[in-house]
């Protein structure tokens, strides 16, 4: 996973990733940037999963942020926007408009090793 760390004069330290991993960048830029408690929980979960995957553990870890959640299991990390989890009733209201929900920017996944490398670089940059 390729990433770019940069300083923005308005928004501070930022992470930029490819389009398919845009939600991962949002996790770092929006959820973790000013939330040390969430950052600590996330880092602890990554460390637990990293040691567990070598022991063939299968417990799923879920970390919830304000706008998204992260699911860590089997050496993989799944980022899901809360917008992905909606009721069918909500969608039925728009059925006559023939609108389709674009889920491409609502979910992203990556391997635990790549994410740990990004996390270490980000913390050193931050």
List the helices and strands and how they pair.
Elements (H helix, E strand, L loop, with lengths): L2 E6 L3 E6 L4 H11 L3 H18 L7 E4 L3 E6 L2 E6 L6 H5 L14 E5 H14 L1
Antiparallel strand pairs: 1-2, 3-4, 4-5, 5-6
Helix pairs in contact: 2-4
Write up this protein:
The structure is a single chain. By secondary structure, the protein is α+β, with helices and mostly antiparallel strands. It has one domain. The protein is built from 4 helices and 6 strands. The chain has helices at residues 22-32, 36-53, 88-92, 112-125; strands spanning 3-8, 12-17, 61-64, 68-73, 76-81, 107-111. The strands form 2 sheets. The chain has a 4-stranded antiparallel β-sheet. Strands 1-2 form a two-stranded antiparallel sheet. It starts with a strand and ends with a helix. The model has no long low-confidence stretch (mean pLDDT 84). Belongs to the UPF0231 family. This is YacL family protein.
